[in-house]
Amino acid sequence: MALVPAFLSVVFVVRNQSHQLEKLLSESIQRISSLAVDYELIVVDNASDDESVSTLKMLVDENGLPNLQVYALSQEVDADTASWVGLENALGDFISVVDPLADDLSFLPTMLEKALSGADVVFAKNKKSAAQGLAYRSASAIFNRLYKSFSGIHLAKEAPRYRVLSKRVVNFILQHSHPALTDRHLPTAGGFTRTHLDYDAAPKFSRPKPLGESIERGMRLLVSTTRAPMRLVTTLSLFGAGANLMYSMYIVAVGLFKTDVAPGWISLSLQQSGMFFLISLVLLVLGEYILHMASLSSEGPLYHVAQEFTSARLTSREKLNIEERHVQTTHMPRSSPAQAD
Predict the structure, then answer these.
(1) What whole-number distance in Å separates Cα of residue 168 and Cα of residue 120?
(2) Are 24 and 63 in contact (CB under 8 A)?
(3) In sequence order, what DSSP letters do the residues of 118-177 get, joined into one string?
């Protein structure tokens, strides 16, 4: 594949991988440099507690790797937020989000070809993904079916993490109030031209995903990207209000047509049903408003970049040529007065 006449940005998210960072990034830059005329490799260190940051500082000095951009986070965040740190700061015409230990970087040229042919979003799914536990697989299947029924998108199949995005897709995501929460599904739901590809490659490293963190991230994504859960709450509130109203009517009918009613039952039951009826109405009216206000209220940024450093050597600067033009002046012999006459 010839060099693409575009700027390519590749985003890696790493954590506690100091022992293999240099080899991993060196091999990755060697592959990426053969794809595009200009490129950058953005590494987001997700608050590593080993020597990763020191290693990355060494790799961006004058004798280190070219076109390497590093963002070291001060505290650990979820994978989607960490990926968005790289996407938000990418300068490329095309941006690829890659898990260096799970995704096959050698498949990137195929994805880039599809992007050059006009696809704004190119998704790639590895058929040989890392094996997970039974509990995680069960929870994932339930979540994907639930999310599919609410939003019409099966995240695992239709929006995998390995992707190539055009710059205008990233600009579109930036317009959302919480892009770090919604960048997973917006490329699929935004109406952009997209392509889905499958490949087979054994992951370099198999790591179990924490079930609790995945459930929390899934619920947050579910609530922030679809109104269906809120509609479910309001529907249940409406059902509760209607049920209590019918129960109140039943109590009145019992009081009118039955004589052997326990003393105080009618008044106590009407009081309870009336109270639950009012509570259901309050939830029905205010539920969506409360959730909307909660989503707008922010306790602070989702991430904070503690350190930022860039390669001292950039190949784009090495490609700049300064041409000196030497203008040769031809001196014409002046005519003598006699010749002029």
Answers:
(1) 8
(2) no
(3) T-SEEEEEETTPPP--HHHHHHHHHHHHHHHHHHS--HHHHS-S-EEEEHHHHHHHHTSS
In DSSP terms, which residues pair with 41 in a beta bridge?
10, 68
Quick check: 146 and 268 in contact, CB under 8 A? no
Both tokens assigned to 97: 């989000």
The span from the CA of 185 to the CA of 173, in Å, is: 10
Positive or negative: CA dihedral 330, 331, 336, 340:
positive
pTM recorded for the entire structure? 0.69
User: What b-and-e string marks burial along 143-172, b requiring 16 or more CB atoms within 10 Å of the CB?
Assistant: bbeebeebbebebeebbbbbbbbbbebbeb
Instruction: Tokens for 232, please give them.
Output: 């479910």
Residue that has been written with the tokens 């790493």 in this structure? 14
3-state secondary structure of 320: coil
Give the residue carrying structure tokens 């390519």. Answer: 8
Encode pLDDT of 260-289 as tens digits. 888 888 889 988 888 888 888 877 777 767
Could you report how far apart the first and last alpha carbons of the chain are, in Å?
Answer: 70
